[in-house]
């Protein structure tokens, strides 16, 4: 997304950096896409070290869905790393901005959420984020605290501090305008209100995905307009999903939810490609960069990449479910790989025996349609009691069967 960052010098501070500042800078840079302006961030780190005053680091998330996936945790992980070196973390829930709808990366107007939807989603956000952040050292804020009291007069004053020409520098707005696609006036308010959050919180650094760069720079601009020292911005890459193509997204079905069962989370991580695995290590693992580099060297020297992937799957699953659950998930996966049946599988009760295999798969929610069920059988993806099914016309009599589709889907079907 295009943006016009301020022409602030990004040369390093002239004086030698202390060990603590160098370490903090290394933590900040790990995996990041951009750190703007880096020279300003170094000065802030030096000032913090000299004064003993922690810096204020902000991350805002709009509760547009009830659950967080691993893609969201890329910035949460960075927040935790900065929290661990002593800085103040502000987890901002955008309950007000959610009612506008973020236009970032959109070619249509995003429908705003209702207050009821926002409230329901916000209730789960911090609970899930707390699996990454240290709750005792996290400041929780809602941007309705200052956005609601702003009122019409304050909103008009805020809007006067940015031009339409600058707003139209956004790629998504420019493309929509040229294509004749409607842009609602309220969409211009979104980056203004997100930027005003930085003013209200007096943030020193704001984090976001690469698609948020324009909004983050807006925070810098508005802080200057209001006489504050401008924040630095740190953008993190958008995590590629399980398909290895698009960014992780629930709408694309290529995501790993942090509230998913441990077994499902573990298996999904193991399904990531060998190449993408290293990006996941950089953005999701808490292992040091030196450890990751050593592991990668071992794989390049001939070690099975699956060994590295198993370690990654165990680490991430343990983070959200505990070590015992991660070890159980590992055992479950290995059991399935050997053709075994997991310890816990859903039980489905059906009637209509004798029942055709296609109808059984559909009714047991193991296939979305009869056509898909037939395709799975043709691809040797269906087993009943461990036996491969090759006959699409198979009918099952009354009884209890363990039905398997692919490597991960199982059901105990009680057919009457």
From TrEMBL:
HAMAP family referenced in this protein's UniProt entry, alphabetically: Tyr_tRNA_synth_type2
Species whose genome carries this gene: Sphaerotilus mobilis
Entry's Gene Ontology cellular component terms: cytosol
Motif 'KMSKS' region, residue range(s) on this chain: 247-251
Domain RNA-binding S4: 355-416
GO BP terms, alphabetized: tyrosyl-tRNA aminoacylation
Motif position, 'HIGH' region: 63-72
Gene Ontology MF annotations: ATP binding; RNA binding; tyrosine-tRNA ligase activity
Binding positions for ATP per the UniProt entry: 250
Record's catalysed reaction(s): tRNA(Tyr) + L-tyrosine + ATP = L-tyrosyl-tRNA(Tyr) + AMP + diphosphate + H(+)
Top-rank EC class of the record's enzyme: ligase
Pfam families, sorted: S4 (PF01479), tRNA-synt_1b (PF00579)
Cellular compartments annotated: Cytoplasm
Function per UniProt: Catalyzes the attachment of tyrosine to tRNA(Tyr) in a two-step reaction: tyrosine is first activated by ATP to form Tyr-AMP and then transferred to the acceptor end of tRNA(Tyr).
Protein name stated in the entry: Tyrosine--tRNA ligase
Family: Belongs to the class-I aminoacyl-tRNA synthetase family. TyrS type 2 subfamily.
Quaternary organization: Homodimer.
EC annotation from Swiss-Prot or TrEMBL: 6.1.1.1
Keywords linked to the UniProt accession: Aminoacyl-tRNA synthetase, ATP-binding, Cytoplasm, Ligase, Nucleotide-binding, Protein biosynthesis, RNA-binding
Main location: cytoplasm
SMART domains noted in UniProt: S4
InterPro entries per UniProt: aa-tRNA-synth_I_CS, aa-tRNA-synth_Ic, Rossmann-like_a/b/a_fold, S4_RNA-bd, S4_RNA-bd_sf, Tyr-tRNA-ligase, Tyr-tRNA-ligase_bac-type, Tyr-tRNA-ligase_bac_2
């Amino acid at each position: 997304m295009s943006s016009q960052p301020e022409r602030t010098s990004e040369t390093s501070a002239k004086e030698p950096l202390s060990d603590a500042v160098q370490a903090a800078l290394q933590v900040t840079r790990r995996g990041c896409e951009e750190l703007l302006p880096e020279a300003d961030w170094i000065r802030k780190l030096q000032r913090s070290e000299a004064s003993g005053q922690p810096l204020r680091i902000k991350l805002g998330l709009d509760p547009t869905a009830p659950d967080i996936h691993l893609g969201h945790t890329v910035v949460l992980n960075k927040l935790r790393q900065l929290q661990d070196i002593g800085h103040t973390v502000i987890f901002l829930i955008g309950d007000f901005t959610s009612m506008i709808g973020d236009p970032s990366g959109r070619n249509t107007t995003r429908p705003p959420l209702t207050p009821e939807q926002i409230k329901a989603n916000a209730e789960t956000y911090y609970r899930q984020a707390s699996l990454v952040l240290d709750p005792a050292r996290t400041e929780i804020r809602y941007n309705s605290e200052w956005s609601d009291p702003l009122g019409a007069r304050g909103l008009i004053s805020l809007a006067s501090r940015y031009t339409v020409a600058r707003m139209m520098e956004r790629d998504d707005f420019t493309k929509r305008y040229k294509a004749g696609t409607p842009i609602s006036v309220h969409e211009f308010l979104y980056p203004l209100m997100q930027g005003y959050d930085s003013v209200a919180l007096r943030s020193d650094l704001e984090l976001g995905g690469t698609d948020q760069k324009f909004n983050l720079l807006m925070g810098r601009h508005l802080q200057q307009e209001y006489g504050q020292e401008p924040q630095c911005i740190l953008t993190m890459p958008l995590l590629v999903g399980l398909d290895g193509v698009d960014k992780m997204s629930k709408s694309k079905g290529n995501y790993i939810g942090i509230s998913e069962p441990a077994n499902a989370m573990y298996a999904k991580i193991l399904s990531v490609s060998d190449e993408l695995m290293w990006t996941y290590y950089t953005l999701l693992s808490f292992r040091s960069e030196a450890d990751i580099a050593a592991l990668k060297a071992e794989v390049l020297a001939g070690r099975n990449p699956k060994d590295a992937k198993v370690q990654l799957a165990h680490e991430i699953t343990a983070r959200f479910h505990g070590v015992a659950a991660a070890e159980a998930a590992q055992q479950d996966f290995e059991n399935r790989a050997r053709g075994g049946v997991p310890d816990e599988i859903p039980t489905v009760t059906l009637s209509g025996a004798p029942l055709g295999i296609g109808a059984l798969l559909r009714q047991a929610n193991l296939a979305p349609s009869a056509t898909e069920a037939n395709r799975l059988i043709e691809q040797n993806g269906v087993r009943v009691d461990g036996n491969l099914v090759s006959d699409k016309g198979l009918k099952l009599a009354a009884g209890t069967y363990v039905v398997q589709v692919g490597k991960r889907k199982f059901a105990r079907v009680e057919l009457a």
